[in-house]
């Protein structure tokens, strides 16, 4: 982000100080920059530079190395699927405001990114930056000129899509309800050249140490994992408990100790995902209900009204 600002002759240090952010926080990719800082900052950068696709430019600079420790874990996995799944599993170490997921639909795979707070200013820039980084990651795992089948964005089509065509060089779909890359599922079997199993073991031990920082916030871990699991179709208490290698009763007990429940966290995830789709896309209610695991629009609408005090249609009109 700071390098892109310099391209527009904007002093990044001065801008960060104006925003009350210590520039040193960006000196190490393993530093946890609060998600609200990132979204607020990238929106400010877009306004200051007058560049409507500022997030896209930021993402073009990103790759596995920019993800810090979890990026090095991924590049030392034995194949592309294990690399992507390691990124997804450890993603909460990098960001507590978003999730990544991988799903397979027939012969197509979808590598997806979702920010959890749809009404945050700058969220579309974050999505564009993330998808651009995802493309760079895939090119590291496969080959430099690799192209996905399709690039999707949940938000509406911008006025000028030339910068997107120039970078992605493949089919683009806006207003898609998802942010991510579609590609042949067979690519997931590709072996990663230079992967070092011993180095991977050492790096995972370091990740395990970082995980200790999250032990006192079990509810946050569950929420992060559940928001990811929704897209993989693994959203029951039993399935989430299995991902933690604990019994379902233990999951419920530990969440109760945190002052919450699986139902409350599940509803919170559904609400955040639904808000994002309502605000940043024109996806119809039938599809949104399906994506947040409701059998029909009527059931979804009742739940949404309970969460927000208004129907999904009313909420969309007020927030778009």
Task: Please sum up the structure shown.
This protein has helices spanning 2-7, 12-18, 35-49, 54-59, 69-75, 80-89, 91-94, 123-141, 162-168, 197-211, 218-232, 237-243, 248-257, 262-280, 285-291, 297-308, 312-319; strands at residues 98-105, 108-115, 150-152, 171-173, 180-184.
Molecular structure report:
- With 320 residues, this protein is an alpha+beta fold.
- 54% of the residues lie in helices and 8% in strands.
- α11 packs across α14, α12 packs across α13 and α15 crosses α16.
- The longest helix is centred in the middle third of the chain and has 19 residues.
- The chain is globular and about 50 Å long.
The overall average pLDDT, rounded, is 86
Structural class: alpha+beta
Distance between the termini: 27 Å
Question: What value does the Rg take, in angstroms?
Answer: 20 Å
**Structure annotation, total helices:** 17
Please give the share of residues in helix.
Answer: 40-55%
Element order: H for helix, E for strand: HHHHHHHEEHEHEEHHHHHHHH
| Major sheet attributes | 5 strands, mixed
Strand content: 5-15%
- Total beta-strand segments: 5
Query: Unreliable stretches, pLDDT < 50, 5 or more residues?
Result: none
Bulk shape: globular
Q: Largest sheet, order of strands side by side?
A: 1-2-5-3-4
